[in-house]
Design a protein that fits this description.
The complex is a heterodimer of chains A (378) and B (368). With 378 residues, chain A is α/β, with parallel strands linked by helices. In chain A, strands 1, 2, 3, 4, 5, 6, 7, 8 and 9 form a 9-stranded mixed β-sheet that branches. Chain A has a 4-stranded mixed β-sheet with strand order 10-11-12-13. The radius of gyration of chain A is 28 Å and the shape is globular. In chain A, 38% of the residues are buried. Chain B is globular. The C terminus of chain B is likely disordered. Classes of the chains: A alpha/beta (378), B mainly alpha (368). At the A-B interface, helix 2, helix 7 and helix 10 of A face helix 5, helix 7 and helix 13 of B.
Chain lengths: 378, 368
């Protein structure tokens, strides 16, 4: 022990520090193991859940990318599809892991398909695994797959170079911007399923043959498992209402003259409550700035006002039809209820009040259409 | 040296937010917004009062003041209580980030592995001179604050933010505040109380501190951001379901054209770094209190055991705690720790006031 006495205070302190740290590492079982090497992993790019049987209610399908030696033009878009029925999603994934022989990495999974058969089941139950997993991205897209998630995941579009990338281009804003696509993120689902007064909307991806798919329709769903299908026009209106799609194409074919189509450049919409106790109403007003995109004959610039009026009537009618359809079925994807709650301070009663009011609300829509031109020809 | 005081205050906000947010967002429907506003008022007062009080004792820390005012049988338990509180204040965020590391970095870590790594950093650095610790904080904050501000703006401009959810939360402003949420938010404003040790080395000058309410306000904006952005992303009803709010929110943001697509992986190291710096500061303050209780040891080894025995004991204690309880239970008990901030701050201020009084009287006497 004599040498300890001879140490300088600085060295003695460093010695003590080193001993404590060594003890810490020793008693913590730190082996820094468990981290699976990148070559020993499968990257899950997309995942689908379908309705299974009575005993095994979930059929989980994983789309895994097959590692390529290099990215060159003659590479195949290679993927592996694994599927398993189980009582729980976690159980199915654990089983598939054993089957694949490599660790799954969900960190790059950007899209989640829920089979059409499960769309009418409580979504919180189905999505629980995704909400709970830490490595599933909150910005993964959620969509309904028709007929089944397995069918949709099997799709192999010719232009797709990375598995499941075509879906990402459809849903993300980097690729196409379509009025018929509703991009719903996983955290969006979490928020709107829990939030009283707003219901989530998810797009329906429909498989067409071996290598094509179509996104047109959508579902409004609620936390108790209700669902209501919106057709393409209604989906488009939904996107217009939330001012999400600024390149909506509106086709006016009302039998009052030649049919024509226009494309919206800019949309400003807002609504206000008119909470007259006898006759509650929601008044929608706004402006759509559009360009003529297609007409079957020559359009006189003087007659633009006529077209504007026809377009207005058309869009307002459709909007009210959609709102009434949603109201009749008890859905509220636009978040009227949430806005009502936000505007009222009485915390206990506001939600019950709104549930009494909503079925009796009447809608009026005063959207103005401004056609800025007839395009490059008259 | 006023700028180092500034760093202390800001550090508590940045590091504390992730931990305390869980408390007041969990109470989102029990008057948490009002609690936050009250905590802002109380916190600003605390900031002003603390700076003024310590200005009466230039280059003295709380231990010297307490030893001067109180008889030793009173001063020693008081300082020991302070030591314990500061150690716990550092320990809770430390356990939090080790849990986060396990969740988000590598789930296959052994139970205590991340904690051991963080403790190793603390053991190496905690006994350095206070001034050096402040330099260390400066560097960490210079790296972190711009990124944090950037990410706050990014989240504000996210088109996924539900403004009506935020309004719905705001419409609950008149609900009666609750003490738990108030106390959790108040803790964020207690950065100035670290002067109890750092006053020895920085001695901020209140005359040059007219910007203090402004600093407090800027920090309050961060608190409001950390309150409303999670609600906008996860809904007024849904946010209470989320466990690691700050990181879940970071995961709702994407940088398509950044080098890292998932913002989570930017926020994660940033938060771990600030929280580690916070724990280091808190333990440093605790350690200085601890040293002041005992007579100065005469040998090198006595000196070392005075410093490193409590550190080793705390580390062992945290290991056992983490092994035996698991994080969810620790988090629940940590809420009791939160309740102590307000009484503790009041006691310290009272002590400072009592210690300052005779000096006033003497000054008044000479004036006449």
């Amino acid at each position: 022990m004599r040498f300890l006495r001879g140490l300088s205070p600085k060295t003695a302190e460093n010695l003590v520090k080193a001993l404590i740290v060594a003890a810490l590492l020793f008693f913590s079982d730190a082996g820094f193991n468990g981290y699976t090497d990148i070559e020993q992993r499968f990257f899950v790019l997309a995942m689908g859940i379908d309705k299974g049987t009575e005993e095994e209610p979930y059929e989980v399908t994983l789309k895994l990318s097959v590692p390529q030696p290099s990215l060159s033009s003659n590479n195949e878009n290679e993927y592996l599809l694994l599927s398993k029925r189980s009582r729980s999603i976690a159980g199915a994934v654990a089983f598939l892991k054993a089957k694949a022989g490599k660790e799954f990495d969900f960190g790059h999974m950007r899209i989640i398909f829920i089979g059409d058969g499960l769309a009418g089941e409580p979504w919180l139950k189905t999505l629980d695994w995704f909400f709970r997993r830490r490595d599933v991205q909150n910005v993964a897209y959620v969509a309904v797959a028709r007929p089944t998630a397995k069918e949709v995941l099997r799709l192999h579009p010719d232009y797709e170079r990375i598995p499941a990338n075509a879906f990402l281009l459809s849903f993300g804003s980097e690729g196409t911007e379509s009025p018929y696509i509703v991009s719903t993120y996983l955290f969006d689902m979490h928020r709107n399923l829990f939030e009283r007064g707003v219901d989530p909307v998810v797009s329906i991806v429909e498989a067409l043959g071996r290598n094509q798919y179509e996104i047109r329709d959508s579902y409004v769903v609620n936390e108790s498992g209700g669902k209501l299908e919106l057709n393409a026009v209604e989906t488009g209106l939904f996107n217009i209402f939330l001012m999400r799609s600024e390149r909506s194409t509106l086709v006016v074919d009302d039998g009052l003259g030649m049919p024509f189509a226009m494309t919206a450049d800019e949309i400003h919409l807002d609504y206000r409550f008119d909470m007259n106790p006898n006759r509650p109403a929601i008044v929608i007003r706004g402006d759509v700035y559009a360009q003529m995109e297609e007409a079957s004959e020559r359009v006189e610039p003087q007659r633009l006002a006529d077209f504007e009026r026809r377009a207005e009537r058309h869009i307002n009618e459709k909007m009210i039809q959609l709102l009434v359809k949603l109201q009749r079925n008890g859905f509220d994807p636009f978040g009227f209820g949430l806005r009502y709650r936000a505007a009222h301070m009485d915390q206990e009663s506001e939600w019950e009040e709104w549930r009494m009011i909503y079925p009796n609300v009447s809608f009026s829509s005063r959207i103005r259409v401004r056609l800025s031109g007839t395009g490059t020809i008259k | 040296m006023n700028r180092y005081f500034f760093y202390l205050v800001v550090l508590f906000f940045i590091a504390g937010t992730a931990v305390q947010q869980v408390v007041y967002l969990g109470a989102a429907y029990r008057g948490s917004l009002m609690s936050l506003l009250l905590a802002f008022a109380a916190g600003t007062l605390l900031l002003a009062a603390t700076v003024r009080m310590y200005a009466r004792f230039p280059r003295q820390g709380l231990p010297e003041i307490a030893n001067g005012l109180l008889p030793r049988p009173l001063a020693a338990p008081f300082l020991l209580a302070q030591t314990a509180l500061w150690f716990v204040t550092g320990a809770v965020p430390l356990l939090y980030i080790s849990e986060i590391s396990k969740r988000y970095i590598n789930p296959d870590y052994a139970t205590n592995e991340p904690l051991a790594l963080f403790l190793a950093v603390i053991v190496f650095l905690v006994n350095m001179p206070s001034v050096k610790l402040l330099y260390f904080l400066e560097i960490i904050l210079i790296f972190n604050v711009p990124l944090l501000v950037l990410l706050c703006f990014k989240s504000y401009f996210s088109d996924q933010l539900s403004s009506y959810s935020m309004l719905e939360a705001a419409s609950r402003i008149f609900e009666a505040p609750n003490y738990g949420a108030f106390s959790a938010a108040f803790m964020l404003f207690t950065g100035c109380t670290a002067l109890s040790v750092f006053n020895r080395s920085i001695a901020p000058d209140p005359a040059k501190m007219r910007y203090l309410p402004l600093l407090s306000f800027a920090c309050f904006l961060l608190v409001m951001t950390a309150y409303f952005i999670p609600i906008g992303m996860f809904g007024a009803d849904g946010v209470a379901q989320v466990n690691y709010v700050w990181f879940a929110v970071a995961d709702t943001l994407r940088m398509q054209y950044g080098f890292i697509d998932r913002v989570l992986f930017v926020v994660l190291p940033m938060n771990i770094l600030t929280t580690l710096a916070f724990a280091l500061t808190a333990w440093h303050v605790g350690l200085e209190h601890w040293k002041s209780v005992w007579p100065a040891p005469r040998t090198v080894w006595g000196n070392l055991s005075l410093v490193y025995l409590p550190l080793a004991a705390m580390s062992a204690f945290l290991f056992v705690l983490e092994n035996q309880l698991g994080f969810s239970r620790i988090a629940r008990y940590a809420n009791y720790w939160n309740l102590w901030h307000v009484p503790n701050v009041l006691i310290v201020l009272l002590l400072l006031w009592l210690a300052a009084r005779p000096a006033d009287r003497a000054a008044g006497g000479t004036g006449n």
